[in-house]
Every structure is written in structure tokens, then in C-alpha cells.
Amino acid sequence: MALIVQKYGGSSVADAASIKRVAKRIVDTRRAGHDVVVAVSAMGDTTDELLDLASQVAPIPAPRELDMLLSSGERISMALLAMAIHSMGFEARSFTGSQAGMITDATHGAARIVDVTPIRLRDALDEGAIVIVAGFQGFNRDTRDITTLGRGGSDTTAVALAAALDADVCEIYSDVDGIYTADPRVVPKAQKLTRVSSEEMLELAANGAKVLYIRAVEYARRHGVLIHARSTFSSAEGTYVLNEQHERSEQFTEGGPMEEPVVAGVATDLGQAKITVVGVPDVPGKAAEIFKIVAKSGANVDMIVQNVSAAATARTDISFTLPKGDAAVALRALAGDQAEVGFESLIHDDQIGKLSVVGAGMRTHSGVSATLFEALSIAGINIEMISTSEIRISVVVRGDDLSEAARVVHTAYGLDGDSDAVVHAGSGR
Amino acid sequence: MALIVQKYGGSSVADAASIKRVAKRIVDTRRAGHDVVVAVSAMGDTTDELLDLASQVAPIPAPRELDMLLSSGERISMALLAMAIHSMGFEARSFTGSQAGMITDATHGAARIVDVTPIRLRDALDEGAIVIVAGFQGFNRDTRDITTLGRGGSDTTAVALAAALDADVCEIYSDVDGIYTADPRVVPKAQKLTRVSSEEMLELAANGAKVLYIRAVEYARRHGVLIHARSTFSSAEGTYVLNEQHERSEQFTEGGPMEEPVVAGVATDLGQAKITVVGVPDVPGKAAEIFKIVAKSGANVDMIVQNVSAAATARTDISFTLPKGDAAVALRALAGDQAEVGFESLIHDDQIGKLSVVGAGMRTHSGVSATLFEALSIAGINIEMISTSEIRISVVVRGDDLSEAARVVHTAYGLDGDSDAVVHAGSGR
């Protein structure tokens, strides 16, 4: 008898039929003898519809009221889910973020969880009830106002509940059946990973893998929560995201200790843009000046390269990548300070693609980057930028080349499966 | 500077445009220098849509979860309304039933208000904010669960807030601009009343007038709250519902004490059915027996008449009226005990109409009933049943005759206006 936390995204509870299917799945878990706590997102497009309504009545909605509005979405889905379970003959109780003891700071729209006090949830579990909790929302003790957690909020709710209740596993359900060695829509021969280390998962998520939100994975890593990413539409095992202690646990060491693959997966990201600051005076402190300006603009810099200076001009070019959405503010900020910095011009390129190879095995294996560069050169794909971390190598290529690059690299590392992977549609909040 | 509580029904906040219009109205009241507390219903058909969703996932939804579900409707409307006001440059804060201190018993779906502790509302008012409260919902202290008040809930919320905050007036907005001497859809010459006593209002509401809910009027009468029923779509004064202390107050006695009309209005009701128990043994206790059975069935008996016994058979007929919706259960209950009671048969008639003449002046004026009976006889309308209270005379006629009956009686009591009244559509929750 285990305590299992399950999270269902918006696409898993999009309509009455889906809610009943999810209810059945929860009941099956209960029938198997487990205690079940469920974190649920708002139905399908509810959140977008509410946001649309808000924009119709107020150009810039008051943050406190926007959270009050959006938090109603999960109230609807969780109450319906609890009813559905109830009508199957099982006791189920739904709880709002505040009833569940999801205490956050007062940052409306992007609140951080500061404490979880699931007293009412424990009581309900002790009374044999299935517990349904509104994902994405919390409560601030000082203002006594409702807050929302922002993107990936429901995943974070689930992981935070799993940590606070010391659950055996946190199952994150979506319409994708696990973590793949690459995006199956890009690399048909991508294979589902049975397990991946949380540090690898963080690098994959940070570099384009969409299945899990970084924030939830970080929370799980910090609190030792075992995540199991799986599909709402099949009962097949998905992918386990393991921390050190899990990697050593019996569940995952039967048949000898878990052997680390050199490369866990290949992540692709078309959401980045490149900005090149041309003709920067090659004197100390200029780079610092530039990135202070960019940081002040709120833009999130990812990769940076500085060309060797052309001796004649004593000037150099500095290129960096950032999310496409941040490019405009960064360009405006830089242009505004062009005189002070003394650069010649700015080049904006949003036709780039980023490919990342991630694997904890890189620490102990050499030649990993060589394989990458060789595969790309054989395919005639030009590398524009390179950056590396302890367990990741990322390269920037033309956006049009990204898919082919991913396929050849995936093959080069021996990640190809025998058959093509099954592809599903996009996932919910 | 007064404290004004306003209630807006679902039809007043049906869409973004309506919400903005209501927001402007609230802001205007604030600009006039008043403190404003608003109770708002769910948008348009939200409640019906949520009920429909519930029925799709569960044949008989769990009451606790149904309240959790339905209470989300007001969260949406109140947050949007607060945003709209905020974007007009005024501080506005929305509060759920529990945040507003609307404490109820634990009867889900039909909770009774047991206490109102509007501490957070007072704080918000002291800080100069406009307060928006979710109508229709409350909170039970023991179970710590959300409850809903049932039909007319939002009106009751508004009146309860007005009482707890000692407001100067409770304005109930709907798409009808006040209380009329009759339903303008039935009697075109009906006139809007500038004021009506709460006891008259109770009789009118109890006998078919739809503008205000009995429950809210009773609460206002018990707590001395002054109700002003008016239209969302015009700034014209509506109808004041007065208690004794108001009738004596300066606001309503300038130009001499308020003179009571003999008849305040004519109410019509097509929602009743008649059941006749035929051939009841004319022995003591039979009536008691019959109405004990009916009461046990949960049916709500209104009028009762017993014919004089036919000496030959020593049997009599007993007829009574009740809401059409209650007829089925009452008939089933009576049929089940036919042997014990010893009556001969049951007649069910749902083609009746009830006309009521209401006026506090009846206490002091005679001949009121004569006028009624004469008017109907001249029109050739047959009276099937008669019942009276201290300030009301009700008669049952054929449903097809009800409209004409209302018109001739309205004329007979000199209630006709010079011009026809403007008619609006039905009102919200």
C-alpha cells in the first residue's frame, strides 16, 4: 500500500468524457490498494478563455483579481472530478490551494511555494477518501489572498504535495507517454527512456524538451521526489526521473547497478533568437557593459560567443542567444545605449535552431563532442555557436537544418530505436 | 456619505460589455461620495452550464462538490467586475463568501446564514476600496467547506451584508425597474410602485411576483434593511421596500405621513395545481389525516377548501392547491394511503390560475373583497377557491381566465396607469 500523487493536465480533463476516464484511472489506483492524492489543472482551454474575458474588461487586469479569476478554473475541474469519482462509489473530496495548505509568497501570477501544510489532506486520507487538489494555485498568509504559481504550476503543485506528504511516487500524466531520447515529431526513431536522472532531465527541459517543467523537476530534485512521467491514454510505464537516492534504491538497481548511458537524449529548440553586437571596441569591460544592459531589459541570455578581435580595427563582434520573445526589449535597450558602448550595429537573427546533447555519462566519457561535430559535418550542417555544461553540449545551427541535425546526431550516438515512435498532440498546463 | 450595498444579478453581468456597464454604475456611486459594497451573481447562464457539466459526470452529484463547483461561478464574475472597476482608476477588491465572513450551516445547496463577520470588508472599506462579494455562497465553520444558499441566494447575500454592515440602503438591481401593481406582461396598465411595505411585498412575492425573493425580503424585514429594487438599465428610482421604522422615517414622510393605498397590487400565479380528494368520510380528523400525508410527501400546500358534506352520503370533497412541481409526490403519497383514509378518488387539475389582491389597507377598509368578486362576476369569470389573509385575498380561476381576471380587477381597484408600462425580459439569479 503506497501513497501515490497523480497530476492530470488540462488536456486530460478537457471535457466530461475525459474527466470520467481520468476518474476511472484514479479509482483503479485506489482499488489497487493505494492512497491517492490528485493535482488537477483547469479543463482544456478554460484558462485561455478566462484570460480573454479579463482582457475584454481591463487592458491590464489587477494581478490580485486575475489570480482570483484564474483560480476558479481548477475549482471547476476538481469538483467535477471529485463528483465523477464519488458516483463510482468512492469517497472523494476536493480542496482549493488554500484548503490544501499550499502557502506561497504574495507574488500574484508567479507565486513561489514557501510552505505546504496538508493537514486537511491527511485527515481526508485517514478517513479513506481520495483527495483532489486544485493545481496551479496557492494562498498567501499575510495578505490572505489567493495566488497562482504561473507556468507549470500544476506540475509543481503535484511535486510539492508529494514532498509534503512523503509520497512514494509523483505520477505526472499528459498526452505524451514519457521522456524520449528526442522529440518524436522531429526524430521518428526516438525511443522512450525508462529512466532519466533529474540532472539530465533539467538539462533536457532547459533546452527544449516540453514534457516536464524545469520548476517541478528542480523541486523534485531538491526534495527527493520520484517523478513518473506517463500517458493518460495508456497504462504502459512511462519514464522515471531519478535522484541519486532513487538510483541507488532497490526498485532501480535490481539486476545490478543502473548503468549510465553516455548520452541520454537530444533536445531541440526553435524558440531562440540570436543577436550580434557588431564592432564592439576590444577593450576590457565592454562585454560586462553589454550584458548589464541586456539583463536590465529583463531578457534572458542563454549562449554567448565572442569572436577573436580583428587586430587592424581592434574591434570584435559579440553574439548571444535568447528566447525569441525577449529579443525586442534587448534590441531596444542596446540601441538606446549604442553611443556609450560604442558598438557599430546590431544584427537580429530569429532563424536559428539549437541542438543539445545531454548525458551524465559525459563526465566520465571522452570524445562525446567529437561524435557530435563529426556527425554534423558529414551532413554538411554548419555550426554557428557552441556552448557546453558538465553534462551537455549545445550547438546553434540554421533553423532549417535543426531537424536533420537532430536525426543524424541521434543516430550517431546510437540512440535510434528499431521502430518509429507513436506521436501525440501537445500537452496541457 | 452613505454606505450602499448593491446586488447585480446574472443577466446584469452576462458578458464583458455588461460587466463594464455595471462597473461604471458602481464607480458613479463611489464618485457621488458613497462607500459601496457589491454582491454579484454568476455571469448569465454560467450556473446552468456548470449544472449541466455536473450531470454529465455524475447522475447525482455529491452535494459538497456541487457547491464547490457552483461557487466558482461568482468567483469569475466578481473578479472580472473588480478588474473592470480597477481599470477605471478605482481601488476594488473581490471576496469569496468565506473571505467575506458569510457563515452558514452545513446544508449544501440550501445553506442558511447563521452569522456574518465582514471584518475584511470593513478593512477594505476603511482603506477606501470598493468591495465586491460573491453572492449565493457561504462557508461552514465546522466542516470548513464552501456552501451555497440556493434560490435567491445573491439577493439574500446582499441583504445580509447590508444588515451586518448597517448599510443605509440595499439596492437590488435587475432588468425590471421596480415592483409593479401587477405583472406588466399580464396587465399593460400596471404602474410602478414608488414604495411598498415589506409585509405587502412578502404577500406579493409569495403569490407570484418575481422581482424579489421572499427569503431576502424576510431577512430585510427581520433586520430592518431598506431595500431599493431598481433597474440596471436606467438611473430612474425603482421601488423602496419599507419596514415600519422606514415608513416613519423622514426620507419617506416629507409631505405628511405616508398614506396607505387600500390595495398595493395584484399578483398572478400560473405555477399552482389543484388536487381534489373526492368522497372523504365526513368524520372528525380526516382532514388532519390527509394533510399529514401530504406534508410527509414534502409537498407545500397553499389553499384549502372543504365542500359542505352531502348529507345523504356523509361524504365530502377536500381540495387544495400546491406548486405544480409538488403535485406528483402528493398524489403518489395519497394514493398509497387511499385504503386507510377511505376516500373514493383523486382529481388532479393543473390548469388553474391564482389571483391575489394585496394591500395593508385592507385591515382598515371594508368592501375590498366585494369589489374583487363583483369585478370577476361582471367579466363572467368563475371563482373556484377563495382564501384570505389579513392583507390579502386570493382566488383560484381557470388558467385561461387569469390574465383577463388580473386586468379587470386591476381596473376595479383603480390601479390602472394612464400609459402602458415598459416590459423587460426575465431576471437573473
Structural overview:
2 copies of one chain form a homodimer. The first copy, chain A, is α/β, with parallel strands linked by helices and 429 residues long. In chain A, 35% of the residues lie in helices and 24% in strands. Chain A has 14 helices and 20 strands. Chain A has helices at residues 16-31, 46-57, 63-86, 119-126, 153-164, 198-206, 214-223, 244-248, 250-253, 286-296, 324-336, 338-341, 368-378, 402-412; strands at residues 3-8, 35-40, 92-95, 102-104, 113-116, 130-134, 137-139, 146-148, 169-174, 195-197, 227-231, 239-242, 265-269, 272-281, 304-306, 315-323, 345-349, 352-358, 385-389, 392-398. In chain A, the strands form 5 sheets. Chain A has an 8-stranded mixed β-sheet with strand order 3-6-2-1-9-11-12-10, sandwiched between helices. A 4-stranded antiparallel β-sheet of chain A has the order 13-18-20-19, sandwiched between helices. In chain A, helix 2 packs antiparallel against helix 3 (63-86), helix 5 runs parallel beside helix 7 (214-223) and helix 13 crosses helix 14 (402-412). The first copy, chain A, is globular and about 80 Å long. Chain A starts with a strand and ends in a 17-residue tail after the last helix. The model of chain A is unreliable at 425-429 (pLDDT under 50). The A-B interface holds A 16, 19-20, 23, 50, 53-54, 56-62, 64-66, 68-69, 71-72, 75-76, 78-84, 86-87, 92-94, 99, 120, 144 and B 16, 19-20, 23, 50, 53-54, 56-62, 64-66, 68-69, 71-72, 75-76, 78-84, 86-87, 92-94, 99, 120, 144.
